[in-house]
Amino acid sequence: MSACPACGNPPERILDGPRLRPPHQRWWECRACRWVGVLYTHSGHLETMRRLQGDEADCVFCGWEEENVVSEPFERDGERLDWLVCLACGRSNTRRLGRMADPE
Ligand SMILES: [Zn+2]
Ligand SMILES: [Zn+2]
Predict the structure, then answer these.
(1) Proximal ligand: closest to the CA of 32
(2) CA of 59 to the centre of ligand 2 (A)
(3) Confidence of residue 103 (pLDDT cuts 50, 70, 90)
(4) Domain spans, the chain
């Protein structure tokens, strides 16, 4: 990828260590505007990820702060989910969204 889809500057490969993410996912980050996305090599689909803020942005696996990004919400088996990935350690998690009146 030669140009960031958001600002046109050249993005950098991230999470490209052998154990970080599966090889069919190519992760890119733009240092200029902080855009992050993942390119799926089998489909050519590029998904833009959204940075989280506050406590949600801190990785529960490795403890790095401000490194979590999430996908657009999607539905599976009637549940609304999103997909959270830590840009520091590459570990990921599916989150349940949109549940009503979750007790504390
Ligand atoms: Zn950019
Ligand atoms: Zn992490």
Answers:
(1) 1
(2) 5
(3) low
(4) 12-97
